[in-house]
Amino acid sequence: MNPAISPDIAAQLIALFAVLMLVVQLLLVVQRMLLTSIRLFAIQSVFLAGIAAVVAYFHGAFHVYVVVALTLVGKVVFLPWLLDRQVRRMNIIQEIEPLVNFPTSMLICGGLTLLGYLVARPFTSLERLGNNTLAVAITLVLTGFFLMINRRKAITQVLALLTVENGVMLAAVALTTYGMPLVVELGIFFDVLVAVMILGILVYRIRETFASMDVSKLSQLKG
Amino acid sequence: MEHLPLTFLLLTLLGYVAGAVAGLLCLRAEKLANYGSFGLASLAALCGVVASVSMLAAGTGGAPQTVQLLPALIPYVRFTIRLDPLGLFFTLLVSLVGLALSVYSLGYARGFYGRKNIGVLGAFFNAVLLATTLVFLADNAFFFLIAWEIMALTAYCLVSYEHEKEEARNAGVLYFVMSHIGTGCIMLGFLLLFQASGDYGFDGFHALGDRMAAGPRNAAFLLFLAGFGVKAGIIPLHIWLPVAHPAAPSNVSALMSGVLIKTGIYGLTRVLFDFMGTPPNWWGVTVLTLGTISAVLGVLYALMEHDLKRLLAYHSIENIGIILMGLGAALMFLHSGHPVLASLALIAGMYHTINHAVFKALLFLGAGAVVQATHTRNMEEMGGLVKRMPKTAFFFLVGAVAISALPPLNGFVSEWLTYQSLLQGFGTTSSLIRLMFPLSGAMLALTGALAAACFVKAFGITFLAQPRSAHAEHAEEAAGPMLAGQAVLAAACVFLGLFPTTFLRLLDPVTQQLTGQQLSAQLGLANGLVLAGATATGGTVSTPGLLLMAVCLLPVPLGLWLVLARGTTVRRAPTWDCGLQGLTPRMEYTATGFSKPIRMIFKALFRPRREVQRDYDFSPYFAKNLRFDSHVEEVFQTRIYRPLTWLVWRMARKMRALQAGSLQAYLIYIFVTLILLLLFAL
Amino acid sequence: MKPDAIAIILQTGLLLLLAPLVSGLVRNWKAKLQNRRGPRIWQTYLDLWKFFRKDMVISEHASWVFSFAPHVVFFTAVLAGLLVPMVTVQAPLSLFGGVLALVGLLALGRFFLALGGLDTGSAFGGMGSSREMTIAAIAEPALMLAIFTVAIAAGSTDLSRIVAATLGPDWRLLNPMHVLAFAALFIVLLAETGRIPVDNPATHLELTMIHEAMLLEYSGRNLAFMEWGASIKQLVLMTLLVNVFLPFGLAPAVASPAALGLGLLAYLAKLLVLAGIVVVVETTNAKLRLFRVPDLLSAAFVLAGLALFSTFLFQ
Amino acid sequence: MHGTDLSLLTPLLAVPAAAGLACLVARARRTMAAIGVLAFGGTLLLGGRLLQQVVAGGAVTEWGGFLRADALSAWMVVLISTVSLATSLYAGRYFQRELAAGAVTPGRVREFFVLTPAFATGMFLVVLANSLGVMWAAVEATALSSVLLVALYNRRTSLEGAWKYVMLGSVGLALALLGTVFVYAAACKNNAQPLPSFNWSYLQTVAPQLDPRLVRLAFVFVLVGYGTKAGLAPMHTWLPDAHSEAPSPTSAMLSGVSLKVALYALLRFHILTTACLGSAYSCHLLLGLGLLSMFLAVPFILVQRNLKRMLAYSSLEHVGLICVGIGLNTPLTIAGALLHMGYHALTKPVLFFAAGNIQQSYHTLELRLIGPGVVKTLPVTVLFMGLAAVAATGLPPFGLFLSELLVISGGFAAGQTAVSVLVLVALIACFCGILTQLTRILPGPSRPGRQHDGGSWDGVPAMGLLMGGLLLFSVWLPRPLLAVLQDAAVIVGGNP
Description:
The structure holds four protein chains of four kinds.
Chain B lengths: L3 H22 L4 H29 L6 E4 L11 E4 L1 H24 L9 H20 L3 H19 L6 H32 L4 H4 L8 H19 L8 H7 L2 H26 L5 H24 L3 H28 L3 H36 L10 H4 L1 H14 L6 H16 L10 H28 L6 H4 L6 H19 L1 H16 L4 H4 E2 L4 E3 L7 E2 L1 H11 L1 H9 L6 E4 L17 H4 L1 H6 L1 H4 L2 E8 L6 E9 L3 H21 L7 H19 L1
Antiparallel strand pairs in B: 1-2, 3-4, 4-5, 7-8
Helix pairs in contact in B: 1-2, 1-4, 2-3, 2-4, 3-4, 3-10, 3-13, 3-19, 4-5, 4-10, 5-6, 5-10, 6-8, 6-9, 8-10, 9-10, 9-12, 10-12, 10-13, 11-12, 11-17, 12-13, 12-16, 12-17, 13-15, 13-16, 13-19, 13-20, 15-17, 15-19, 16-17, 16-19
Chain C lengths: L4 H29 L9 H11 L2 E4 L4 H19 L16 H21 L3 H32 L4 H9 L8 H17 L18 H5 L4 H26 L11 H28 L8 H22 L1
Chain D lengths: L8 H17 L3 H29 L2 E3 L4 E3 L1 H31 L4 H23 L3 H19 L5 H34 L10 H7 L5 H19 L7 H8 L2 H30 L2 H23 L4 H22 L2 H32 L4 H4 L3 H4 L1 H14 L6 H15 L3 H25 L18 H16 L3 H15 L3
Antiparallel strand pairs in D: 1-2
Helix pairs in contact in D: 1-2, 1-4, 2-3, 2-4, 2-20, 3-4, 3-10, 3-13, 3-19, 3-20, 4-5, 4-10, 5-6, 5-10, 6-8, 6-9, 8-10, 9-10, 9-12, 10-11, 10-12, 10-13, 11-12, 11-18, 12-13, 12-17, 12-18, 13-16, 13-17, 13-19, 13-20, 16-19, 17-18
């Protein structure tokens, strides 16, 4: 089939979505409210799905549509719903208190973005579609990592982990023509799903035993 | 027929295995375990003596015979033994001592009935004998290291056999830690050789040093010196020795002091004379110096002890020093190209090695009997035992005379040889270094005299005069097997003392192998009656001759008795008590008091501290009761080892902060690692 | 080279008979120098005679070691004496041992002497043994070093050869090596024979006595052997000194009776001179505190070391 | 060659999975335990057969190349089965006592017996998967299944351990996935149409043509990622927490095999990287991290207060040694490292089982509280613990002495003297630590007032099985084992 839209438009779309993902990520970094950040994650996943969709459409690779579907179902609908429900049920205090204050964390994120571009620069040639998507992906991974460090609440850490996951998936889409083989995609997807569920269970138990979700309270095991 | 000795040797190994198994099988039945394991051990050791003596007497010429014990079931490891003179000589040593010890243990183990598990003791005892024998016979570095480690392991278990006592536990740990560090050095040394030869076989190592570059060669020398030095207890690597040897059961102490530390000597001899080629001069100088230091300091520390077994342990350090003097001199002679003198010095060292094995084991056995009888190791609570344990006392006296290097017993002979080699060494070089020979000779004299003083104290305070405690008063003579074991060693002392030239024949193959010389013909004059230095003009001595002469002089005192002292009577009366009412043991000279002059003279070394508390009514001279403490500082312990360990622990504690329990911190570790690696990969 | 019976018997006799005389002489001359009449020079013989005739009292705490010690002391002294050339260059027993054996034998005697001192359980005996062994221990290196010096020069530890070597053409009275070694050995002699300034053989004062403290419990023939052994030991050491360092006048190994006579005279003369020196030293010095003795002996060690070094220089 | 028949690899996955399901429905604890034992006994047999087939005729594939087992995988399969078998042997009695003591609820016990086979299945899949992507998914699966095992006791500390484990693990695995993606991209690059599959068997062949820069980048991510799961310093921080807080059977599996499985995953990429960039790059990284792990373990062992944490750190030490052995990259050292994997897998579980007995008898793991004299109360347990400790510290007659000496001497042979010396120093220090620590508790007099409830003979079958195996293989390596080891060494080292 011949695509109705030309490659460069596709490339621009992908680049746009990628950058949007990055923006959302930065918003996450400075976000104070828990539920909002969950929604932000959902939005980020939407963009990811969008990129995947573009790729799928442009290459007519049908199994990538599956990826799109999975992302939409899983990361946009199910997981946010799950987390949201948990947050409400355990009526956690909404306020997020990060370790590093926002200006500093913004600076750090800037640095990480720079690093991401540095690392990705040699590979721009590899990208079939759009440029510096890879850079965005790596940046997402790094900032997601930083987000984990910077958060105290268990749930927010899970969230950060998920953004890292998004970054990885973005890289997968960006670097490879047709995304990963379907079986791998499925494996990854279900792993992520199960992971979040198990994390949920743990968070629940922790909540019960510690009467708090502050991870920095988990520091009895020393030496 | 010529395979007979080999058969005996294999029987030895099998016997030890069987003994160990027997011990483990009879864990519950202690009598059975005792007779089974120690009986088999004695038989095995006997076979070992027969085998090694016959092989040495046959003078195994040419390439050493090798025997594969087990098929190569696992890659890179060959369980092969080699029957070369050096190994056989040490096998003789371990078997001879092992024989006496096993017999002794038959009686000694009874002391543990109902308290401890004899089966375990017997099993480990056999195991350590087996491992030691294999150390002496191993044909490649891999096998050697395995045997070496098993020996250390079993010895550790034996040291902490009475693990209910904290002393034994700590002693075991200290011993094993030091020994393991030593093993590490040895391993590195062998690996350096392996790097040069590309194989683990000892044949490949022969005279390898000449083909090695100077750097690795010297490194290997130092590593081996340190590694085997730990095992031998060379000062300053000795700290484990006076702790571990006393803590073990006495038969084990005897084994460790008599045989196990000799594995260090074996290793040094094997490496320095077989593998390392012609040594540079400073090797010999180092060994000689270390030997001298160990000898003097060892005996000085021994003098300060009033714990009988610790005292003996320190004497082991002293004697190792004397052995090293011989080896060091031999190295220097090899360097300056005097093979005959080198052989003489080597013979002196080897002779003293077996002598020390014999009389030190004997002394430890005596000490063991005494400790078992008096339930204390503190000499201040003994005394008067010569009347209650006459036989043990006699054997101990033999050992004491021997270790004090007094004629006509064996210690005198080997030290005489050492003196000879040192004196003749003076002519081998014209450099200032040669002053070392007579000077270390003088130090050897000092050592001998101090040793004599120390054993006057040890024997006098322990066995003579009045008993100083109720235990000592009710002590009983040791059991038959224990006496038998001591008798064997005492006989060995006498034999080695009176018939050195006969024994030297057994050393011919050893020197032949290591220096290409055979001296027994030169050393034995007047068909074996007289022992000569390497040259007949150098000086001669004849212990049997002197003994004969003494017998010939007997008429003099006899005549005087018969002529002058006829009709005189002998009256027993109490010792003069200065007019006080009766002499009590508390008035006797104590061990601490006996060694006080030495302590004062060597104040700088011992840094003695004393606390005196007296409470009195009107005048300090009439104290109601008086408490006196006197401590001697062990410099190496307090100045080197303690600070070192303290430092290590402190750093370790600081490190714990890394694992402080904060998830964020852990994430940061990973994050930082990732970023660093990314930058590295760029 | 082979030990011949006559020489042995003669030298044994000489040792046994001469030793008490020398001690007697020294005691007598000392008294003279102190303006006392002092005991006759034969007194020692009479003492020994008396001791042999007397009954023995043995402490009930003592064991067989107590009675065994005197004989060991006596025998070792005599045997040591047989290793030293006295009248002729050739010591009768030199084949059976050189200077090392000599030192060893004396050490053996000392060993049992000290044990005997401890055996009775009296505090004096213990104190004596302790001090005796201590002083011997620190005297030993000086003694050995001094002996090594001459032994190295002669290339042998065999006393006959040493004497022969020193008797050789290149012997000079003022050879620095010999002078220094002689000085060292002389100090050792004072220490080993329990002379002032190290020990006072004439006193029985608890705090100072060393040798006497060990003999305190001895009586009868045991005491006799002890005393006799001690004086023989003293004679042996003096002989060693005079014959090794002043070898002139010694009869050759195989000699006519006349030559032997001359040798004997020369030997006696040297001996008397040495005894005189000892007496002078003893009367002109005060006894040192026990813990000063090491200084004296370390001085001896240093002298011996210098002697050794001088051989190194002059060889 | 075995592409069509499903006789070998499929059952290896099916049997434990089935066992897990069976435990879901099984009623009695005994039946569940029995099921576990039977299942892993079966996998062990299968592993043996696989071993022979691999030695006989190279790699075995099934499901049209979806599953693939070469010598390396076969070796791992045997290890996994052995340790799992021992674990399920031990678990039955262990949980009987836990239930009696009221430490766990029956529900949790069922959870254990269901999740353990799942855990094992995951590990089997890791070593059998042909596609690197599937391998990644499997590793993640093992992580997830073991998390709940770690959190089995609902104590604060165990939850904390589990939480750290899962968080750090997932982050690591995310990074590993990124690395995997890069490799995949690199593979895609040099052919326009989509890859048939993301298969090892294919990548192996094209490895030399991959884009070096991308592979460099990929290996960094994979190293950090799988390194975290394998407990390489400084990503090891979760290891002592998880291993000490998990129930002893799980600790045994974590220390015994799961670390090595992660290491296996890392190895696969290491092989690709060496094939693409030459050995220097990845070997140096492995060497560095390995040495760091060895030395980092030492102080924590020296001043450790908790028995199981000490054992965990010693595992860290051993993982480091294995990495060094592979990093040295000579046939000798690689063989040594693989051998070391095996011996360690036989040794460490015994230690954890014994620690479990001690914990159940003294109700604490604090060395200070256990105090001296355990030998008086639990002689048999102490016997096994002592033997295993002797083995773990690398003393003869046990095989770890051999494997360690192989690594060290290989370093000398390769001229990497400094590395060997460092390794030896670390090993000696570690030995000193373990010796001092265990001497504090094992020997000594039995304190009179000390209350404990016996159980000296607990888990003897499991410990006996492992120690027996260790002793046997220390003196005798059967030919197939040896052959498979050499093949595996060739696969890893790439030099025939």
